[in-house]
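Researcher: Here's a chain I'd like modeled. Treat it as a single chain, no partners, no ligands.
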Amino acid sequence: MAFLRRRWLSVLVGPLTAVLCAPGASAQAVASENDIKAAFLYNFARYVVWPDTAFADGDFRLCVAADRQFTASLDAIIAGESIEGRPVVRQTPATPEAAQACHILFVGRGEPLAYRLFSSLEGRPVLLVGDAPDFLDQGGMVTFVREADRVRFDVDVTVAAQAGLTISSRLLRVARRVISPPPGTGVQ
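Model: Modeled as a single isolated chain. C-alpha cells:
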C-alpha cells in the first residue's frame, strides 16, 4: 500500500493492471481497482487547498459512502497517515449534517444516501468525489472513470471553486478531462 501512496501519478498513466483479471493472479500481488481509487482519494488531498475555516479541529476527515470492499482498501491506505500534519480519519456520514464536517466525501456507485447528502453540501468546502457515470452532472467535483485498463478521473473546477476549494494545476494536468479550467492553467 505504501507503494501506491508514493507512486500514485504513475498509476494514472500506467495500466490499471492487466493482470487484475489474469488467470492465477495473486490478489495480494496486484492492486485492485478499489486500492487504486483509494490511493487517488488519499492523494487528492495533497493537491487541493481548503479555506482555513474548514479545519475547526485537528483531523482531516475523509468520508465515505461506499461498499465495504472500498472502505477496507481506503482504511489500509490511510492507516497512520496525515495531511499537512493533520491525522487522516475515515468517517461514514449517516446524515447530511454529518457530511458537512467532511473534507472529502467519496460516493460509491449506487449509494442511495449520496445525492441526499449533496444538497446539504452546496457551497461548503467539501471535495465531492464519486465513480457514477453522471456524478459530475449531479454536482460532483471529481469522478473516477475506467478507460480501457486504467482508472482515470475527470474534474469540474467550477463546482470546486464555488465551494471555496482550489485544485492544483498539477492535479489538473493529469486529469483525463477538466471542465471549465481556470484561465492561465494551460489545461484543456
